[in-house]
Amino acid sequence: MALEFMDAISKYLPSIKPPQNPLSLREKMYWTGAILAVYFVLYNTYAIGVNQGAISQPLLQLISIIFAARIGSIITVGIGPIVLASIVLQLLVGSGIWNIDLEDNTQKSRFQALQKTAAISIAIIESIVYVFTGFVPVSSASVVGIVILQLAIGAVTIVFLDEAMAKYGITSGINMFIAAGVSYAIVAGTISILIPGAASAIAAGGAGALSNAVAAFGPLFFAIIIFLLSIYTYEMKVELPLSFEQLRGIGGRLPIPFLYVSVLPVILATALEESLTVWLRFIANSTSNIARFFAYYQPQVTSTGTSSPQLVGGLAYLISPSFPLPYQAPYGIGGYGPYLTYLATHTSELFLPGGGILFVPEWVHVIIYIVVLMLLSVVFGKFWVEMTGQSPKHLAEQLGSSGWQIPGFRRDPRIVESVLNKYIPTVTVLGSLFVGFLAAIATLTGAIGTGMGILLTVGIIYMLYQQLQQERLYETYPILDKLTK
Prior knowledge:
Blueprint: H1 6-10, H2 25-43, H3 57-66, H4 80-94, H5 105-132, H6 144-168, H7 173-204, H8 209-215, H9 218-234, E1 237-244, E2 251-257, H10 264-279, H11 289-294, E3 296-301, E4 307-313, H12 315-318, H13 336-345, E5 347-351, E6 357-361, H14 362-387, H15 392-402, E7 404-405, H16 413-420, H17 424-444, H18 451-476, H19 478-483
Antiparallel strand pairs: 1-2, 1-7, 3-4, 5-6
Helix pairs in contact: 2-6, 2-7, 4-5, 4-10, 5-6, 7-8, 7-18, 9-18, 10-14, 14-17, 15-16, 17-18
């Protein structure tokens, strides 16, 4: 499918102009700080007409973390439209349904314009979905249109902030917004949830006061464990020796890390799962067995006394880490003991399309969620390797065109590809499985900022550190930049 039709649309599509001259690292840091300042202003500004007291923050915390958003704020939709548009369009290209040569600058420009148009369209649609499905409670019916307009403007603003970060900042906007949101959530959660919980345990007195106060910091302890384990995993790698053909005596190493595709697979997998949860909320009032087979909702009363439809069964429920209120892990149920008891004793309902109900134990729900997230992470991991030029074939061609070769092997891309095939496919699968498993376990244990958020932030910071090292190296030795192009 050709994309010539985007030429006419691109003329009217707003765009952030790239810098006329290459920016220094210092200038990129300034731009990154400025863009993050705008992001945090939007993050902490609630839309006019939103009923803040009716928002169930623990219930929507994972959605907020994954989409770098804050439910009820101007940027309620967050980066969801950008991620969803990217997933859909890249799947179409990767599967061969659309035959587009992304190596061609013209076609690549058209594809990027289509991706931006799709993201803006999804942003507007999701703004409507969030309000009409009750994810964003409004104070009265008369302000529904005003709230939708504010959310749509905020969502479109995030699209352009992401573009500005990509052209002027030190990394992509998606990465930076997720890291900033998670960091904020960890600090805010520790101050507003964990410390008051520990203080209440001590004030209650009794023989178990001290142990209860320490247990109140369990989510923070799990966050630290995930943080340290993630850092250790990122350092695991296989290094292949390299030699440079044009300059004898110059060699190097090609690192193939255990997390070869970083945390991107789990970002895409979780974004897909959470997007399904949002979209399926349209069938919250349906009594059809088929609709309930996919997603079953029941009215639940939140801590503020308001009632809203809550996902409590169906396929969408089984692949999500959510539980009915007040059983969100582990804050709403009173600690890890009652939380584990709930998982061992309760069941959810799966309506069969032909009639009848299948009762699924919650511990089975946990296993299904973990397995599905791991498998989706593998699918997106392999897809991402092919789409981003990190496959053995692409990497062998890049090394050959840059003048690098593996000592002891002929400088033939096919030979180099066969060597890389011994490592890259394996680490892609194992790394994707591990990051999916770690993210699932961390989320289920209720790590502050969500385990998913911690994992993503560590990966983003690690990538950012590597990128800053490369930027500094290229500024110090400009000839290296020329040699690698």
